[in-house]
Design brief:
Elements: E1 30-36, E2 50-55, E3 58-62, H1 68-74, E4 84-86, H2 92-95, H3 98-104, E5 118-123, H4 126-136, H5 138-148, E6 157-162, E7 166-171, E8 174-180, E9 191-197, E10 200-204, H6 212-218, E11 223-230, H7 239-245, H8 251-261, E12 265-273, H9 284-291, E13 299-301, E14 306-310, E15 316-318
Parallel strand pairs: 3-4, 4-5, 5-6, 10-11, 11-12, 12-13
Antiparallel strand pairs: 1-2, 1-14, 2-3, 7-8, 8-9, 9-10, 14-15
Length: 322
């Protein structure tokens, strides 16, 4: 594939120096915001999978599900501020928001104005995905450059693939490690992520069955954000429901993961709570109740726009809604 990334030189103008209070790593924020906690069903209360991690000076986006730019702007995070995007795998519900973040982030409004390449990291196939989007939106790019004079640098793509476990990103004391998870025999590759900053850490499970890799990377973590799938017993006779359930982690299995890893706080996201006419989805209380069969520690069911702060002392605390 023709390389899409542009090698850029930054030209710095004169800057007026003003007094400022220096920030140390201990005083800089480390927050995790659940932008989207849903799954493929188009639920207006739970947008597609997307998690924002703000660690020190770095603003990182993990998966880009349906509605991610809307949730970002609800948190008043301009799209241009995203330093890098990371994909767990290439299922559509995890990547469908990429064109919106990429293209809308290039526009001229206060929510956008990106002037540097769109950086994205992901497993094998990420390069091809971005090349396809580059081609698909060729007319949009041409028109906006000619008609609105948006900078070419701001629409460039810097796509980087990885094929094995290990550190995939390091910047400003933030380190991101990818690790393989089990989303099913035919859904490979699939990864989770460990994000570390200033002695604090968060693990994002990605889509997975019960995984020893998640346990290993989350052991001692301040926060573990884990997927979950659950249905009422009467739906287990549905073959399609069974196929979905067999690719995910049940509440009881997630509890076993939490019990072994003992994170400071466990939070559910990417909730696959299937329903059918006449059979309702499980409630958050029911989900917690099933998890309590195997785990008694700190646990929250994530909601869209929930923010968890990792405090300097290592405590993970849900930020109250304003």
């Amino acid at each position: 594939m023709q390389k899409l990334a542009l090698t850029l030189g930054l030209i710095l103008g004169l800057m007026v120096q003003v007094p400022a209070v220096a920030q140390t790593a201990e005083t800089m924020p480390f927050t995790v915001t659940l932008l989207g906690t849903g799954a493929p069903p188009p639920d207006p209360n739970r947008f597609g999978p997307a998690t924002l991690v703000q660690a020190g000076t770095q603003t990182l986006l993990f998966d880009v599900g349906r509605g991610a730019p809307i949730r970002l702007w609800q948190k008043r995070v301009p799209l241009r501020d995203i330093d890098a995007v990371f994909l767990t795998h290439l299922h559509s519900d995890h990547v469908v928001g990429i064109p919106d973040v990429w293209l809308s982030g290039w526009l001229g409004g206060p929510f956008a104005r990106r002037t540097t390449p769109f950086r994205i990291f992901g497993p094998e196939g990420t390069d091809g995905l971005m090349a396809g989007l580059w081609q698909a939106y060729s007319e949009d790019r041409r028109i906006r450059i000619e008609d609105e004079n948006y900078p070419i640098k701001g629409i460039a793509i810097d796509a980087q693939e990885f094929t094995s476990d290990g550190v995939v990103y390091e910047a400003e004391d933030v380190r991101v490690t990818a690790f393989t998870v089990d989303h099913g025999e035919l859904i490979k590759p699939a990864f989770g992520y460990l994000i570390e900053f200033d002695g604090r850490s968060v693990v994002l499970s990605g889509d997975t069955r019960k995984s020893d890799a998640v346990i290993a990377h989350a052991t001692g973590a301040n926060l573990l954000v884990h997927e979950v799938a659950a249905v009422r017993p009467e739906l287990l006779s549905d073959a399609q429901v069974l196929r979905v359930m067999n690719h995910h982690t049940s509440p009881q299995e997630a509890g076993e993961v939490f019990d072994k890893a003992a994170p400071g706080l466990a939070v559910y996201s990417h909730l696959v709570l299937l329903a059918r006419p006449g059979v309702s989805a499980l409630t958050a209380d029911e989900l917690i109740g099933q998890t309590r069969a195997t785990y008694s520690g700190p646990l929250r069911v994530g909601e869209d726009l929930m923010t968890i702060e990792l405090l300097p002392d290592g405590q993970a605390s849900v930020v109250p809604e304003k």
